[in-house]
Amino acid sequence: MHLLKGRLVNTATSITTTAAAQLRLHCSRHHPLPPPHFSLPTAYKTPSSPLRLLLSRAFHPSPFVPAVSTTTMGDATTDAGMDAVQRRLMFEDECILVDENDRVVGHDTKYNCHLMEKIESENLLHRAFSVFLFNSKYELLLQQRSATKVTFPLVWTNTCCSHPLFRDTELIEENALGVRNAAQRKLLDELGIPADDVPVDQFTVLGRMLYKAPSDGKWGEHELDYLLFIVRDVSVHPNPDEVADVKYVDREELKELLRKADAGEEGLNLSPWFRLVVDNFLFKWWDLVEKGNLKEAADAKIHKLT
User: Fold this and answer.
1) pLDDT (tens digit, 9 = 90+) per residue, 100-118?
2) Digit-coded pLDDT (tens) for 168-195
3) Who has the most CB within 10 Å: 1, 60, 90, 291?
């Protein structure tokens, strides 16, 4: 630690790639996960500190380094009962922070980005995506989120919902390639859909929506969500850590699902982002899916929905 501190003092104005690589290697060997009592040192909480810059470079190498959120990781001791897989993702994944015009302003942990306290006090807004995958019969693939998910467990939702991460391949702005790369990655992670089944150039970005939704009081969402549509026949092998169930539905079956959710039947719940898309866009876009004219619906507007 003294050596590291000395190095930081000596390189306060020039954080080297070598130092970042060494730190990344050391941490991957000795601290693959933050322990339950983990909290960030004071030096890391100072946005301009050399330690914060070094850690940012070490774990999030990118062609540019925007401002890093000044939030802390929170009191992890209160989350000791969190599922191990979900806990790892909460602390390892770094979401992309954006403003309401979708300009990148920094990054922060998935943990912080989903704490309602942080969302409300610091207006944390992160980039996200929602995939709507149809088969050749124009049926929509839905998933039920696993019981261990931190936000909105066991709710039914669209095919895949997640976040591009603060990494080179998922920060590419041109043609939303970073978001489409992230969608391909998560379809494999959550549903076991091979990348070859969902080429990134087959996703159509129909629009973006900005919404906020609390989950259970502590957790929630505040996302600028890219809506990605794709028509492909795929092989599906759900990951039980992420997905409890899957099913394809046609329009009438989806309408029945909506009726049951509205009536509170069978304990059925839908995710708030899925419901917003259904209520505002989905059925008119479904017509274009069947006609092969999806690109007619694409727009550059950011829809602010509640």
Assistant:
1) 999 999 999 989 999 999 9
2) 999 999 999 999 999 999 999 999 999 9
3) 90
**Are residue 112 and residue 252 in the same domain, yes or no?**
yes
Q: Indicate the angle between helix axes 2-10 and 50-59, nearest 10 degrees.
A: 100
Low-confidence ranges of the chain (pLDDT < 70): 1-82, 85-86, 89
State the amino acid at position 16 in one-letter form. Answer: T
Other CB atoms within 10 A of residue 16 CB: 12
DSSP 8-state assignment for residue 284: H
Write out the residue range of the structural domain in which residue 49 sits.
1-59
Active site residue 252: no
- This prediction has a pTM of 0.75
Catalytic one of 161, 190, 221, 242 = 161
Do 91 and 22 share a structural domain? no
Catalytic annotation, pick one of 94, 190, 223, 242: 223
Residue type at position 150 = V
First to last CA, the chain: 48
Cα dihedral 273→274→275→279 (10° resolution): 110
Residues 188 and 262 in one domain: yes
223 catalytic per annotation: yes
Residues 42, 131: one domain? no
Helix (H, G, I), strand (E, B) or coil at 297: helix
